[in-house]
Amino acid sequence: MLTVWAILIDGFIYASWLFLVAAGLTVIYGVMRILNMAHGSLYALGAYAAASALGWYYAGGGSQLWMAFAILASCALLIGAISGLLIERGILRLMYGRDEILMLIVTFAILLILEDVMKLLWGTTPYFAWQPYAAMGRVEIDVLTVSGYDIMVLCLSAVIGLGLWFWLERTHTGKILRSIIHDREVSEAMGVNVRRMFTITFIIGATLGAVAGGITAPIISVVPGIGIEVIVLAFAVVVTGGLGSITGAAAGAIIVGLARATSIHTMPQFELFIIYAVMAGVLIFRPNGLFGQAIARKI
């Protein structure tokens, strides 16, 4: 029974982090049909910005936890919004209407460029921002102890997921986005400014990626290459759940998180393999993912 509790707790905590990472990626693909490989670098930018700002805050004698979270959130939101705007307006807007494979290559090139830019700005020395993680202490669940910070990440993931669902399903802007998803040409003919909606969507997706990085910064050592590692995991999650589906991203994150936790506690040698085995198993029976829908070709 203890092992079951450990699997459930570890699985849902890891799933909440996976969803935070994958949410922005699936939002962008759902509306724009762009598989944004640069999402990993946006995550890394958020992590570096948050770690740097928190380092300066604590080095200057700061000790207030609420202030640390305010700095972390502000840095992640700011760098995500600015980076998203620059990438969409400066590069992607020139490529709209091109083949999806070409857009994939372009965003992968942006990923490589940003990885080098981050090395120039922050160097190759690891950055640590452990203070908020330590300050939140541990919480006892039965005979297990769980980090309070991890529980906060789980709650934040649930809030963001519900917020995205409400935005897409219950707001006027969300209805416009869903009309673009179903038929871009008809939406434009009805007077929808599709390019403006693309800009809004990309900024939101990029900001979600940077926020995920900022939230993760106190848990890890921020080093070059974390963006590339993350985009592979995020891709596995959104493909499992179905590209472009928020519900699918949540389901994919839970399935992958629980499968990984089960492997760690029972067969640790298969930890890395199990994530991609789950993805492959789902795609064998559901080629478009659990909640993905086949897109009809227009002739």
Automatic annotation (TrEMBL):
Keyword Kinase: no
Keywords attached to this entry: Amino-acid transport, Cell membrane, Membrane, Transmembrane, Transmembrane helix, Transport
Membrane topology: Multi-pass membrane protein
Coiled coil regions in record: none
Molecular functions (GO terms): transmembrane transporter activity
GO BP terms in the entry: amino acid transport
GO cellular component, one term: plasma membrane
InterPro entries associated with the record: ABC_transp_permease, BCAA_transport_permease
Location(s) in or outside the cell: Cell inner membrane
Transmembrane segments: 12-35, 42-59, 65-88, 100-122, 146-168, 197-220, 226-258, 270-287
Family: Belongs to the binding-protein-dependent transport system permease family. LivHM subfamily.
The protein's name: High-affinity branched-chain amino acid transport system permease protein LivH
Species, as recorded: Halomonas chromatireducens
Lineage: Bacteria, Pseudomonadati, Pseudomonadota, Gammaproteobacteria, Oceanospirillales
